[in-house]
Every structure is written in C-alpha cells, then in structure tokens.
C-alpha cells in the first residue's frame, strides 16, 4: 500500500534538528513527507553519518557523466543511503540506478508533492519502505522553478552528512552552492579531474574507491 502524506512541523519529535543548525532563519516550518518516516536523519541510527547527497549540473563533461553513473552503481552495490532532488538528466539516471538496489533513498522534489504523480518505480520503493519523498513547499508550488530548486538544494545539503558534487563550472550557481556548503563546514567530495579545479580550490575532497 502506498503511504499517505504526513506533515512534520518543527514541534514534532521527528523533525530533523540539523535543519535549524544549517538553515537558520530559512528553516522550513513544515515538511511534507510520503514514505518511511524512519528514514529521516536522526530517526534511523543506521543512516547517521552515512547519508550522501548527490548533485550534478545539467552541463557536465562526458567523462564525469560516466563517472557519476559508476558512482551510483557503487552506492547501489554497497547499500549506501542517498538524498537528492534527482532533477537533472544525470541525477535522474542516478536515481534509476539506485532504485534497483535495496538501500534507503530520500527524494526531494523542488515542488509540492501532494498532487505529484508517482512513477511505478517510486511506488515499488515506497511499498518496500526504502523511499521517503520530502518537500518543504506548500500546495501553491506545484511546479519546479530555479528559486525553488535553490531552496531545495539547501534543504538536501542540510540533511546530508556528505555532499558529492560531480561537477561545478567556474562562476556557476553550482559553485556558489558549494561555497555555501563548505561555509557550513560540511564535507564536499568530487571527482579528481582538472575540470573540477574550482571545487578543489574551495576545499573539496577527491572521491575515492571506498567513498
């Protein structure tokens, strides 16, 4: 059975405390959730310290597209839990790979989820209680926008323990996002290639075989 949507407010015991730590005044009052609430960071101790956020911009060198796909395969094979918006084409491919595994997945669309159509693979994962769909957006936000995506990305990064940014071009919005996350003190990882020099200058760490 597909679970119904639940509202989680800041006064609820299962509201993730880490959101206030990183988002400060931008901390959402309410989170809309569909799926296994126990997958929220802080609720499931097996996820604590292990939740990876996956980000990859639309424009990305070909070699990094292949590396990102391989990374998703590695996460699937090793049962590593992930969180993301899974919106860009490369991120969508990662989600397709991850859904074939058994590890927990947190999916955060940049829109309200009350009337969002569920894909068959999502339904299967929801039934198996390994998928949790989260949104911080009210019903009037029924379409994704760049502004909502920025807020969603901050929400995802605040919940994650480690952030993987496959690529961020110089002077890009993705690089600005990486700067914010590094200012929080969160670890950022990327692929070791000259194309990611801008990320390494911010203090990103190289992705290794053992992640």
Describe it for me?
It is a single chain. The protein has 211 residues and is α/β, with parallel strands linked by helices. The protein has one domain (15-206): Rossmann fold (3-Layer(aba) Sandwich). Helices cover 34% and strands 17% of the residues. The chain is built from 7 helices and 9 strands. It has helices at 18-23, 62-78, 89-98, 120-127, 146-159, 173-184, 197-201, and strands at residues 5-9, 30-35, 52-55, 82-84, 105-107, 131-135, 162-165, 188-190, 205-206. The protein has a 9-stranded mixed β-sheet. Helix 2 (62-78) packs parallel to helix 3 (89-98). The longest helix is centred in the first third of the chain and has 17 residues, at 62-78. The radius of gyration is 16 Å and the shape is globular. The model has no long low-confidence stretch (mean pLDDT 93).
Helices and strands in order:
Elements: E1 5-9, H1 18-23, E2 30-35, E3 52-55, H2 62-78, E4 82-84, H3 89-98, E5 105-107, H4 120-127, E6 131-135, H5 146-159, E7 162-165, H6 173-184, E8 188-190, H7 197-201, E9 205-206
Characteristics of this structure?
single chain; 211 residues; Rossmann fold; 17% strand
Question: Brief overview, please?
Answer:
The chain has seven helices and nine strands. The chain is of the alpha/beta class and 211 residues long.
């Amino acid at each position: 059975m597909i679970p119904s949507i639940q509202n989680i407010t800041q006064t609820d015991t299962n509201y993730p405390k880490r959101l206030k730590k990183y988002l400060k005044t931008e901390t959402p009052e309410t989170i809309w959730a569909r799926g296994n609430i126990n997958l929220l960071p802080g609720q499931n101790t097996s996820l604590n310290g292990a939740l990876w956020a996956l980000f990859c911009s639309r424009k990305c060198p070909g070699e990094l597209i292949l590396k990102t796909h391989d990374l998703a395969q590695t996460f699937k094979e090793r049962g590593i839990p992930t969180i993301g918006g899974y919106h860009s084409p490369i991120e969508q491919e990662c989600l397709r790979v991850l859904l074939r595994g058994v590890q927990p997945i947190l999916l955060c669309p940049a829109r309200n989820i009350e009337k969002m159509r569920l894909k068959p693979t999502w339904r299967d994962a929801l039934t198996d209680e390994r998928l949790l769909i989260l949104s911080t957006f009210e019903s009037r936000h029924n379409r994704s926008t760049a502004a909502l995506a920025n807020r969603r990305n901050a929400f995802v990064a605040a919940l994650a323990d480690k952030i993987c940014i496959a690529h961020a071009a110089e002077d890009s919005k993705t690089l600005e996002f990486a700067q914010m996350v590094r200012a929080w003190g969160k670890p950022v990882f990327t692929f070791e290639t000259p194309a990611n020099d801008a990320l390494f200058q911010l203090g990103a760490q190289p992705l290794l075989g053992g992640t």
